[in-house]
Amino acid sequence: MTAAEGTGRPLVVAVIGAGPSGIYAAEALTRGGRAVEVAVIDRLPVPFGLVRYGVAPDHHAIRSIRTTLERTLGQPGVAFYGDVTIGRDLAIDELRSCVDAVVYAYGAGADRRLGIPGEDLPGSLAAPEFVAWYCGHPDVHPDAPTGTDPEADRGRAIVELVNTATAAVVVGVGNVALDVARVLAKTADELADTDMAQEVLESLTAKRVTDVHVLGRRGPAYTAFTTKELRELGQLPGLGLVVDPADLELDEASLAAVAADKVAARNVAVLREWAARPAAATSRRVHLHFWTRPVAILGEDRVHGVVLERTAIGPEGLVVGTGETTTLDATLVVRSVGYRGVALPGVPYDAAAGRVPHVGGRVVRDGVVSADEYVTGWIKRGPTGVIGTNRSDAVETVTALLADVDRGVLVPAGHAGQLDRLLTGRGVHALDLPAWRRIDAAEVALGQSQGRSRTTLARRSALLAAAAPDEPAAP
Ligand code: NAP
User: Fold this and answer.
1) Nearest CA to ligand 1 atom 18
2) How high is the pLDDT of residue 224?
3) Would you say residue 65 lies in a domain?
4) Which of 52, 170, 249, 362 has fewest C-beta within 10 Å?
5) What are 209-249's pLDDT values in tens digits?
């Protein structure tokens, strides 16, 4: 008999973050063979994290993972607590005092910096911000009036940037860079079958981007994107793909990299096929530049260009500049060089790594393994892997948690109902799964009224209005 079964009490766990990593952790907890009560908490009014606010809207199959995630939130013993912010509504220690264990699964919400002049000019956006915009994230679709919230104003400015740019630069050659390049290159008609918020789709209708320049600081043998995503770009009708064949000549190290890595080999093959295509006159083009890095973003009050430097691999195997520079005119720059985890108040954080420190999913607090804190997902391992990677990651963490229960290190202490009492006591009204289902129904109804299968509600006020239960009819 395990310790949990011995006490006869359910194991009460709070998971912070209702994205894929948090929901996979909840799923693993329900499959552990014990009575559990899992509260999946999110600061947003809606669940699904990056599946809703990171996966590109035209990636229908990946976005449909939502259905599986929603099923887990509806399992007995699992409850969704939306619109609850740790650090504002609830301190982490208060949360820990009313559950047996906490699992941090709050992802990596910030961007990595390039560290070059002009990076903060209007017109230079971090990919997480741009992705959040086209996915209809409430943080960048402001309710706040102009001038009252700088973050809201940045969100508002994206519309004008997208509408005025003719040339855009995307820094980085990962899958997010490809998502960004595709959204900038596609016509609004090509995006009309997505669930993009109406205001986003309308902005993209006014878009005038003709050229998207994607920059890889290393050669084509060292791309971070996957071949399926690369090929997808090549299948867009009417889109020219420009690759300099000289960039595709592989040096010795690149040949070794391609020999050792099938994805790299396939990516180079796709790029070679594009480079060999006969030039065709197209009104929209994506240019892939390799051995190229930005060294300065130009502009006084907004971006008007980027200084590019040719790169090479230096004697120590690192990318170095060759000193050969050119200037590219562009008014929109999207820096897609990876996400970065941030600190949550009261939660251990390794600033250098951008992660919560841990051993096999058990959080390390003040140099020792904490008895009741666990971590999973991007805030555990860094911003890598596909959505499914989070499932095995969550299983590792939850296996450690349940082993601690078996070992009697983590003992269910009869916390059932305490979180609800704490929240109610301070007037915090969490949004539950039925509230999400009302939002879901409202998005489907809005979409259908516009000839689409769903339209994302971007504004927080719209989400909260849709979440509210219908008033009972007057007698
Ligand atoms: P990523 O895969 O880590 O790619 C980051 C890119 O930025 C790399 O090309 C990297 O080049 C470059 N970079 C980093 N620092 C740079 C600098 N200072 N200057 C110039 N370039 C720099 O990150 P991501 O694209 O944000 O993706 C995050 C994760 O989500 C990945 O695991 C990705 O596969 C996943 N994802 C998957 C999908 C999908 O499956 N469809 C879609 C989106 C995201 P170096 O290699 O030279 O460092």
Assistant:
1) 114
2) 97
3) yes
4) 249
5) 999 999 999 999 999 999 999 999 999 999 999 999 999 99
- The verdict on 219 and 329 lying in the same domain is yes
String of b and e for 93-122 (b: at least 16 CB within 10 Å)?
Answer: eebbebbbbbbbbbbbbbbbebebebbebe
Atom number, ligand 1, closest to the C-alpha of residue 338: 26
Domain extent for 298: 112-126+157-192+207-337
**Based on the structure, what is the number of domains in the chain?**
2
Question: Are 366 and 332 within one domain?
Answer: no
Question: Ligand 1 test: best mutation among 183, 217, 233, most atoms within 8 Å of CB?
Answer: 217
Instruction: Kindly state if the Cβ of 228 falls inside 6 Å of ligand 1.
Output: no
State if residue 170 touches ligand 1 by the CB under 6 angstroms criterion.
no
Which ligand 1 atom is at minimum distance from the Cα of 319?
Answer: 47
Q: What is the CATH number of the domain that holds 349?
A: 3.40.50.720
Nearest residue by C-alpha to atom 7 in ligand 1: 337
**In the predicted model, is pLDDT for residue 305 greater than 70?**
yes
More confident residue, 127 or 144: 127
**CATH code, domain carrying 316:** 3.50.50.60
Q: What percent of the chain has pLDDT over 90?
A: 89
The ligand 1 atom at the shortest distance from the C-alpha of residue 218 is 47
- Please state which of the ranges 219-228, 255-264, 462-471 shows the lowest mean pLDDT: 462-471
Distance separating alpha carbons of residues 411 and 409, to the nearest angstrom: 6
Residues 221 and 333 in one domain: yes
Would you call 61 exposed, middle or buried from its count of C-beta atoms within 10 A (0-12, 13-18, 19+)?
Answer: exposed
The token pair that represents 324 in the structure block: 């050969």
Tell me, using a 6 A CB cutoff, whether residue 339 lines ligand 1.
yes
Structure confidence at residue 8 (pLDDT): 75
Instruction: Note whether residue 269 is domain-resident.
Output: yes
Residues 310 and 358 in one domain: no
At 404, list the tokens: 């601690």
Look at residue 317 in the predicted model and tell me its pLDDT.
82
* pTM reported for the whole predicted model: 0.95
Task: Clarify whether residues 347 and 315 are in a common domain.
Answer: no
Last residue of a domain, one of 275, 305, 337: 337
